[in-house]
Request: fold
Amino acid sequence: MSSWLERDKSAIWHPFTPLKGMTEPEMLERAEGVNLYTKDGKKIIDVISSWWVNIHGHSHPYIAQAIAEQANKLEHVIFAGFTHEPAIRLAERLLDILPDNQSKIFFSDNGSTATEVAIKMAFQYFHNQGIEKKKIIAIDGAYHGDTFGAMSVGDRGPFTAPFDPYLFEVEFIDFPDADKEDEVWKHFKGLVESGDVASFIFEPIVQGASGMKFYSAELLDRMIALAQGHNVICIADEVMTGFGRLGPLFAADLLEHKPDIICLSKGLTGGVLPMGVTSCTEKIQEAYRSNDLMKTFFHGHSFTGNPMICAAANASLDLLLTDDCNNNRERINQRHLAFLKQIENHSMVRNARVIGTILAFDINTEKDTSYFNEARHHLYPYFIEKGLLIRPLGNVIYLIPPYIISDDDLDYVYTTILEFLNSY
Ligand SMILES: *Cc1c(COP(=O)(O)O)cnc(C)c1O
Reply:
């Protein structure tokens, strides 16, 4: 029998991983709290919450128990024509904590489907009313997922090149860097006032995959207000920012003008099982409430509203809404801010930044700053060797830890990063 890693290599195609020349994956045995434990006995602290999802850490016993109990009671059922308590409770609880203007929950499977649903919901909103509006605005550098609609409204680059001919047309505005705000505002205003814009999709305040880039909440607020004044549906993709990542429960809590549609996933189930949610306002539903069957929203997935996943999400919400969790997010923020002071003037560091539980900075390399920047290939194995899962985006190092990470673990993470900066 060949080794597990040989068997993996022969049978499995991993995400975002080249088939040739890939670094060998770590073979995991188990995970608990912030720690991943490999089969050969190594401990790795998961400082990025495994692709930004595990907000309460790994194998949380409370969430595990909720899933097990639900699995023994009602594990799955078709969600058209049937409903159940875990889904109803989850929808009500989400509406309780989402901005007041949100009034309906549509379930799907992940972050990409949550944005697909949002885009389709917005286009059909106009279609159902016989209004011709074709354009959609997105922001340069955006990431909304890997399915075709989500890719279309995302950044066009090396990752999308093979599919570019098949992606639909989108009006991209520049990323509103501080020195570009006036320019971006003018471009946006011109587009919105043209009258042909159906929707505007954005990652509120922080663009994640493009490298944890922050932009002005005040500007976004003005853009939403202007867009809504012209009947443009504003879609906030809170797949990364949702569930406390920026401090408050949602990025929308930092805005005065609330989006029409909100997309959620990642932290929704505590990162334990996949689920997407698209919430919307009464105004959106109005266009679908009709005796005409053809105005139905014809969208669904086999596992929509799966009871075990709803149970996991309900358990995760229980944990999220405790004072403990709130205090932990505040504590991480304070610790990040203190570390920021330590590194912001370091010669290897550019643009150090903190919002909520996210800390990010750019490595000062002379070279190209794209994802393929060489920095990344040195950094990832360097930190794994030190027992830290840190997965740089190009030359951007970022921390997005589970909220339960201890002060001691944070100390170790900060010290290791400083050592690295001093030796680079
Ligand atoms: C991760 C992410 C997605 C895609 O979510 P998946 O569950 O990976 O499909 C969409 N939007 C944002 C902002 C994300 O960070």
Observations:
- The pocket of pyridoxal-5'-phosphate is lined by residues 110-112, 115, 143-145, 203, 208-209, 237, 239-240, 265 (CB under 6 Å).
- The first strand starts at residue 28 and ends at 32.
- The CA atoms of residues 160 and 394 lie 17 Å apart.
